[in-house]
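Quick one, T. Sequence first:
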Amino acid sequence: MQEENLEAVMGLIIHGGNAKSNAMEAIQEAKGGDFDLADEKIKQAEELLVEAHHSQTGLLTKEAQGEHLNLNLLTVHSQDHLMTSIAFTDLAKEIIDVYRKISA
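Structure tokens:
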């Protein structure tokens, strides 16, 4: 795998993983009643997902331009990691809203 592609794949894994971690922390903060911090953690998660999307977009652009990326387990893992992080962040927002309504 070319080094530039490897950096993009690792960007998906790193940013996606950090986004998921922030989303989990956001749930814990909401559970404890600190909704300001929960909202900040979700904001951070969303910013990290944007960074991950930039990495993904770079890979997709190259593919569309005819520069094919050799698929391997690391590439598949990076996409799986990103999609899981997106889903988890979306669910975290819903869980935080439930905690917010319960505490009101």
